[in-house]
TrEMBL record:
Top-rank taxon: Bacteria
Organism from which the protein derives: Thioclava marina
InterPro entries the record matches: NAD(P)-bd_dom_sf (IPR036291), SDR_enzymes (IPR052184), SDR_fam (IPR002347)
Family: Belongs to the short-chain dehydrogenases/reductases (SDR) family.
Protein name: Short-chain dehydrogenase
SUPFAM superfamilies given in the database record: NAD(P)-binding Rossmann-fold domains (SSF51735)
One Pfam family recorded for the sequence: adh_short
Length: 216
């Protein structure tokens, strides 16, 4: 499996690289700063610089899978009554627009691979059943990510390229915090299992990390 993962310097992205390398997969990864995990072919990439995405696509070669993992939690002030609107816009740009732009740029690589597929790392905080006012910029960016990737899935379905959203749960990372109930290594292995088994019947779906469907 030839796979590209974004945001691999820490957290879930780093854990997915380690899990992929352990399986003998050819793993490439992007990072804006920090150190890359061992065994990955690393590419410097700022997810806010869309004009560099074509250059990345020219470097990575054919791909079987892309996992769009890189993201930000958003500004410190992001309640509906006190919103950092510039921070909100940046959160949408990085968490929603950048994954779509990068997926578009990498489509030729996926078409050149074997059964190309796209997974986008979303969040349980995107679920519309939550009536919670905290971290609205982050929640909204992930809900919007779900919708744009669902649309991409519809467009790519005739080509046989599945696209799915992943809810990894509450993971013990810098973003999730030490109190989170899920180990990043366990979640990473589940996501890679799901990636390897993803079929066109699941395209456009919102899935738990182990591939079980969940509501939007």
């Amino acid at each position: 499996m030839k796979i590209l993962i974004t945001g691999v310097n820490r957290g879930l992205g780093r854990a997915m690289v380690e899990a992929g390398v352990a399986r003998g997969w050819e793993v490439q990864g992007t990072l804006r700063r920090g150190d890359a995990p061992s065994g990955v072919v690393a590419h410097a990439l700022d997810m806010g610089e869309f004009d560099t995405f074509a250059d990345l696509a020219a470097r990575v070669g054919p791909l079987d899978c892309v996992i769009l993992n890189a993201g930000i939690i958003g500004p410190a002030m992001q309640s509906p009554l006190e919103m950092d609107f510039d921070g909100f816009a940046e959160t949408i740009r990085i968490n929603t627009l950048a994954p779509l732009a990068l997926a578009q740029a990498l489509l030729p690589n996926l078409r050149a691979g074997k059964g190309g597929r796209i997974l986008a790392i979303s969040s349980q905080m995107a679920w519309m059943g939550y009536r919670k006012p905290d971290r609205i910029a982050y929640r909204a960016s992930k809900a919007a990510l779900n919708k744009v990737m669902q649309g991409l899935a519809t467009e790519l379905e005739p080509e046989g390229l599945p696209v799915a959203l992943i809810d990894p749960g509450w993971v013990r990372t810098d973003m999730g915090g030490a109190q989170a109930d899920r180990d990043p290594g366990d979640v990473a292995r589940e996501i890679l299992d799901t990636a390897g088994a993803l079929t066109l019947s699941q395209t456009g779906a919102f899935l738990h990390s182990d591939g079980r469907p969940r509501p939007f």
